Amino acid sequence: MSSNVLATDSRYESDLQGPGVAVLEPPAQRREATPRMEVTAQATPASSQGMDKTVDKTVVSFRVFVSDLIQLTKPRIVVMILVTTVATAMIAAGGTVSLGTLALLLLGTGMVAGSAGGANQIWERVIDRNMPRTAVRPLPSARMSTGMATAFTASMGTLGLAILWMGFSLTPAGVGLATWLLYVFLYTPMKTRTSWNTTVGAIAGALPMLIGYTALGGSLADGTGWLLFGVLGAWQYPHFMAIAWLYRRQYEQAGFCMSTTVEPTGISAAIQSIAGSLAVIVCGVVLCCLSPGIVPAAVCSVAVLAATVPMLKASIRFARSRTDVTARRLLRSSLLVLPAVLAVVTIRVFW
């Protein structure tokens, strides 16, 4: 750049020495133009940085939006349902299931379950503001509009039912619809009216067991399917009673009718925890004994007992001393029981 300027200056000087009129602009004017060009060049990175910041904000906003959509579906519950669906599908099929079939089943079941969770949050969006545990959800915190949540929930549920119906049969789709209706229109409003909501919620939460079972050839008339339903339904009592005790004050402030708010001593919650633990043991052992073979049945039954007895002991400890410590131990124990029992009864199919 400097060599070009020097060349231009020399030509200008030669034109002045010779005859004629100089057509080049004076050096002073060119020297003034140069700083302006440099200022313009310096301004370009600043505007680029502004654009980068705008892009970054857009990316962050999109990520938050996607995260809110996922949170609206209650992903932890959906994951639990999908795990149970895999087990029940393999049990119904009597062995392995192709990845394509399994992926289609999980997609349909997950969308129905996620839609039910979203509809539950739409219903409870006002009361959720009163609980620190739920106030950070997308709707109570006003990060998402009710209209957007409704559109997302309705479309996802409709598509999920269509997948179950067209990909498999009317029976799993019907079970999925029954699950959705029971969870949204019965369990959800009951939470502020009666502590029996736990029982209704346990039924609604266990029905997806029958989605996977009937999708892969099982029948609603089979005892195996209902025993699987019993495992998940009974497991929810010790699991959710522990949660109800740990968050009893928040539930009470928000206006929810839980066993621990209606009967604050926790005796009722403890009794239901023990009963649920015993029911899981019974259903699991019976499932192990349905298939032929004494030795496999005995081995799997012992494995079920090894997996479930710790939860029963934790329930008894909670009954003797109803504290946050014993409730938290019960909750942690319950998290291991369901996958362990399902793993055992699924392995039993191959043995």
Automatic annotation (TrEMBL):
Residues 1-50 are annotated as: Disordered. GO terms for cellular component: plasma membrane. InterPro entries: Protohaem_IX_farnesylTrfase, UbiA_prenyltransferase, UbiA_sf. GO terms for biological process: heme O biosynthetic process. Its EC number is 2.5.1.141. Keywords: Cell membrane, Heme biosynthesis, Membrane, Transferase, Transmembrane, Transmembrane helix. The keyword Chaperone does not apply. NCBIfam families: cyoE_ctaB. Converts heme B (protoheme IX) to heme O by substitution of the vinyl group on carbon 2 of heme B porphyrin ring with a hydroxyethyl farnesyl side group. HAMAP family: CyoE_CtaB (MF_00154). This is Protoheme IX farnesyltransferase. It comes from Stieleria neptunia. The lineage of its organism: Bacteria, Pseudomonadati, Planctomycetota, Planctomycetia, Pirellulales.
